[in-house]
Inverse folding.
C-alpha cells in the first residue's frame, strides 16, 4: 500500500508587497519600501498594525512573517484577525485572499486539523487564477484525506500550469497518487525527474523498483533496487553478500517464470559486488553507468575521460557520500596539484554528508 504523505507549504522569507492605493494603503506601501532592515521593518509594521487595528494588509504580512519563522500561534492570531476583517466586509485582492486562505491551511496542518486545512486550501484554490498556484498544497491535503480522484485533477491542473513549482514533497505525493491510480507510466516520468535532481526520499529506490516491476520492466526494477541498497549501505552496516544472495534468488525466480529481461542488470551488479575481473557492458540507465565506472575503478582501468563522465553523474548522486569519496580518491590520479579548489569542494561535500576522507 503506497503510504500517504503531505507537508507544510513553503513560503518565501519575504513580506508580501501588493500594489496599494489610497490613504493608509499608500502610507503602508511607502513604509514597506523604506529600506529598513528586516527586523526594523517587522517592528515598524507591527507598530503600524497596532495603530490601525482595522487594516488588513499589515495583519496578513505579519502572519506570513510569523509563519515563515514557524511561530504558528502568532501566525494563527494575525491570520484570524485578517480573516475577521474580510468577513466584516473589508476588501482585498484575490492574490491576498488566496495567500490568507493557503496560509491558514498550513497553520491547521501544523495543528493536525486536516479537514479545516482542506477547507481553507479549497478556498485558496477557488480564488480564480491567483489561487491555482496553491494547487500542490490542496492536492497533498486531498490525497491525505483519501479523495484521490479530486487530488489527481488538482495535481494535473497545477502541474500543467506551474511545473516549476513542483517541490520535492509535492512530487513525492504526486508519484504516490499516480501509483495508487494505476497510472504507472506517468509515475515513472516523475520518478526519473526525481532521480535527475537527486531528491531521494526514504525508500525511493524500493518504490521506484516496484513501479517498474508493475510495468514489466524488470531490468529497471533491479537497478533501482540496487540504488536503494547503495543509499541504505551509506547509513547502515549492510553486507554485499546478503544483497548478492537476494540477487541469486531473484534470478532463479525470474527464470522459473521465463523472464530474462532482468539478466543484464543482475550480471552487472553481481560483477561489481563479487569483484569479478571482467567488465559487464552498461546500459543507458544512470545506475548502470555508476556501476560501470565503479567496476573500472576496481579493475584499475578508469581513464581521465571516464573520470569526467563519472563526475557528470553528480546530479543523481549528490546525496551519496561514497560518490564524492570516490571522486576524491580518484582525483589523486587525474587532477593535478593545480586543482586544490576541486579537492576542497569534494572534501566539503563529504563533510556536509557526514562522511570522512583521508
Amino acid at each position: 500500500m503506497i503510504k500517504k504523505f503531505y507537508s507544510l507549504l513553503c513560503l518565501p522569507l519575504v513580506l508580501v508587497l501588493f500594489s496599494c492605493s489610497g490613504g493608509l494603503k499608500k502610507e503602508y506601501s511607502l513604509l514597506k519600501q523604506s529600506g529598513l532592515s528586516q527586523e526594523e521593518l517587522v517592528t515598524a509594521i507591527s507598530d503600524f498594525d497596532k495603530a490601525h487595528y482595522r487594516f488588513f494588509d499589515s495583519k496578513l504580512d505579519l502572519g506570513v512573517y510569523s509563519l515563515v519563522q514557524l511561530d504558528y500561534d502568532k501566525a494563527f492570531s494575525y491570520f484570524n484577525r485578517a480573516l475577521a476583517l474580510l468577513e466584516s466586509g473589508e476588501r482585498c485582492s484575490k492574490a491576498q485572499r488566496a495567500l490568507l486562505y493557503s496560509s491558514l491551511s498550513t497553520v491547521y496542518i501544523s495543528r493536525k486539523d486536516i479537514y479545516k486545512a482542506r477547507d481553507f486550501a479549497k478556498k485558496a484554490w477557488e480564488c480564480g487564477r491567483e489561487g491555482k498556484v496553491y494547487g500542490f498544497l490542496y492536492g497533498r491535503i486531498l490525497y491525505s484525506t483519501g479523495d484521490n480522484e479530486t487530488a489527481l485533477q488538482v495535481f494535473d491542473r497545477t502541474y500543467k500550469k506551474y511545473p516549476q513549482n513542483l517541490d520535492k514533497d509535492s512530487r513525492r505525493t504526486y508519484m504516490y497518487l499516480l501509483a495508487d491510480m494505476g497510472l504507472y507510466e506517468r509515475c515513472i516520468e516523475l520518478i526519473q525527474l526525481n532521480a535527475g535532481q537527486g531528491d531521494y526520499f526514504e525508500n525511493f529506490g524500493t518504490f521506484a523498483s516496484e513501479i517498474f516491476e508493475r510495468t514489466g520492466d524488470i531490468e529497471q526494477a533491479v537497478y533501482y533496487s540496487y540504488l536503494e541498497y547503495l543509499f541504505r549501505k551509506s547509513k547502515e552496516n549492510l553486507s554485499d553478500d546478503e544483497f548478492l544472495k537476494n540477487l541469486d534468488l531473484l534470478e532463479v525466480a525470474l527464470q522459473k517464470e521465463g523472464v530474462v529481461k532482468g539478466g543484464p542488470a543482475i550480471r552487472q551488479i553481481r560483477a561489481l559486488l563479487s569483484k569479478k575481473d571482467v567488465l559487464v557492458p552498461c546500459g543507458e540507465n544512470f545506475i548502470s553507468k555508476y556501476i560501470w565506472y565503479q567496476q573500472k575503478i576496481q579493475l584499475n582501468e578508469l581513464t581521465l575521460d571516464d573520470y569526467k563522465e563519472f563526475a557528470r553523474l553528480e546530479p543523481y548522486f549528490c546525496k551519496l557520500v561514497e560518490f564524492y569519496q570516490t571522486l576524491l580518491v580518484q582525483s589523486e590520479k587525474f587532477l593535478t596539484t593545480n586543482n586544490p579548489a576541486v579537492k576542497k569542494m569534494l572534501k566539503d561535500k563529504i563533510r556536509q554528508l557526514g562522511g570522512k576522507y583521508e
About this structure: The radius of gyration is 26 Å. Residues 321 and 355 are 6 Å apart (CA to CA). The longest helix spans residues 94-110. Confidence is low (pLDDT under 50) at residues 1-21.
